[in-house]
Protein 1
Amino acid sequence: MFSLQEIRSLNELELAVYNYVISNIEKVNHMSIRELSEVTHVSTTTILRFCKKMNTDGFTEFKFKLKMYKESQEQSFPTEDASHMIDFFKKINNDEFDSLLNQAAELIVNKNKVIFLGIGSSGALGKYGARFLSNVGKFAQHLDDPFYPVPDGYYDSSVTIVLSVFGETEETLKQVSRFKSMSSAIISITNYETCTLAKLSDLNIAYYMQFMKVKNEYNITSQVPVVYILEMIGRKVQRLLEQRKTK
């Protein structure tokens, strides 16, 4: 029901509605438009605009399609987590998303240095991404310490791949700004393309997974999409490198 193109068309207020809806489908099906307006802290006009961007004529039709979507998910998949994962793969099954991956691969192949940057779990994924790229023939390094000193000139002809769920971590943003000032191209992989990190990047790839937190502190949003994106970029890099060898 929610295509990647539709989600990317949402502004920040409409995205707040989307986040609530995707996390509370059952509740929304029994809400009035005014009740949804109150819990999402947006106007009813914003909700109607959101419904229109979801290709429905109004809130009533949107709820009907939402109900049909929920029922189809329950019939197809045994668990809620699986349904969200399958929904991700459906959303990215299009030429637009493939084009983003191609652009990332081209940028990586055309640079002499590839650096992965991330903190916490994103740092661990950065290490995996660096190893995967190295395995396919493009040497890459990872940094999980945003304060790690790097000599002048190191980032010449480089691309930095930055991983972050929120794209708002202060230390990461400072390091990205520093890398940009040293002429490093920035590719970011984030959950939303409206975050600050995405706006600082030369290329952003957003995956729009349901945000999840435990104990109001620990982020457990699925990172399976990030692994998939890294591996798909790596395979495209491998093909480009092989094509260059045959020329």
Protein 2
Amino acid sequence: MTDSKKTETGNLIRPVSRATLPQEIVKALTDLIMKRVWKPGDIIPSEKELAIRFQVGRSTVREAVKSLVVIGVLDARPGEGSFVRATSSELLSGAFHWGLLLGERNLDDLVDVRVLVEVECTRRAAERRSPAMLDQLGESIADMEAHQTDHNAFMESDTRFHLAIAQAAQNPIFENIGGTIQSIGRIWYPKTYYIPETKGLTITEHRAIAEAIAAGDVQAAADAMRAHLVSAGKRLRRILSGE
């Protein structure tokens, strides 16, 4: 990284006001990319340097960078560092901007998309259920129950649950869109974990979905997924609206 780029980066990377929330780091890093301070192919500062500049723990930086890697904004290369990726598809670009711009005014749009995609995936999962897929759902719920005090582990298990259903639809486009939705969710939905009842309700809602899929009840499975997505959206709205 050149001296001039380091200076500009240093001017834009400052301590964040809510250091415990990785999405604040995500916003700061993506601002640098959107402003073209970091361009495709550039290596970003090390995890250690970012932690010092933001005045946060390295684990917070690591989670933020991981989210950007999952979305496809950054490319993590073992032993080399993290690099800014070129936007290679409109879907990725759209997911990136949604992740940045999601707010109360367009939350309903995101929930609509989730319902359209994930409810249909759930219908197909109930029709095409397999022992392996049901085991995946059961294991993810068990992991969520076991990690209710660990936000990161809980989110990983939550994500695995939804991805298993997307994969069970046996349509690579549904799976791709479902993965993109989960990538956005990894940035925003953990904010709802600060609502005390969120994790317990999420587990209960996931269990209802899994039981309906296991029973092969297509309509009940679809209804359970729809109810879960709407409820999750309402919980996120509470946070975004500052309640």
